Amino acid sequence: MLQIQKLNVKAAILDMDGVLWRLTTPLVDLPGLFNAFSKNNIQVMFATNNGTATVDQYVKKLAGFGISVESWQVLTSAMATGYSLKKTFPNGGPIYIMGEKALHDTLKDFGFYHDTQAPQAVAAGLTRELDYNMLKDTSLMIQKGLPFYFTNPDPTYPTPEGNIPGAGTVLAALEAASGVKAKLAGKPLPFLFELGMQRMNTTPEETLVVGDRLDTDILGGQKSGCKTAMVLTGISTREEAEQWQPQPDLVIPDIMGLFEEV
Ligand SMILES: [Mg+2]
Question: Which Gene3D superfamilies match (predicted)?
Fold first, then answer.
């Protein structure tokens, strides 16, 4: 019997960075992996806290690795931010955005646009062009009392060079400068997992969350009531996984471990 058959799930929601690849380097045989999912009749979705690329860019990146997916299968923390904003501002409108093009483009799909004159809220995410004036202007905006949304808390981002500053590093700077805690949107909040299960029409018991980070992927999966598998190709280590309570359902060296005979 395969590991994944033991878990008795119909669907998997996969993190990407540190699970499928590091930047542009695949971590396993990706076409082989997706053949294995389809052979076992497991539906697949992708949920990433990395909001610096749009859904279409992820579809293209996956296609570049020989994996054909549709845009409804990809969920990002920028989308989670859009949904979260929409709850408070159902008509969309002007907001102050500090982030990359993908955040602007994604929020635009939800009816929000960048405005410095009369914004209703501040929305921010990882900005790799970050400079002092951006931090200054954004923190002054937040201090006006506008609601402050931030895409995701991951402090670091795994690359072939090592772990580099992630969105959470920028989040810490803005929170320190403004004295205000952000409303977070991505994992570990259950939002992306709930949206994924809704789109696949599965229950939490039937759904496996796969990730490389205990404090976002695994915590979020557990909070959503899903089964969880942690891979060791990204951020969290086996030692950290052993300390984690409750334990993930599975800790595997890499995502191919789901299809190992046990
Ligand atoms: Mg990851």
Answer: HAD superfamily/HAD-like
Q: Which residues are annotated as a binding site for substrate?
A: 187
Distance 120 CA to ligand 1 centre (A): 31
The residue out of 168, 184, 200 marking a domain boundary is 184
Whether 149 and 198 share a structural domain? no
Active site residue 215: no
The C-alpha atoms of residue 213 and residue 21 are separated, in whole angstroms, by 14
Amino acid at site 25: T
- Return the number of other C-beta atoms located less than 10 Å from residue 169's C-beta: 15
The model's pTM is 0.87
pLDDT in tens, 6-56: 999 999 999 999 999 998 999 999 999 999 999 999 999 999 998 888 899
CA distance 19 to 129: 26
Cα(231)–Cα(20) distance, rounded to whole angstroms? 10
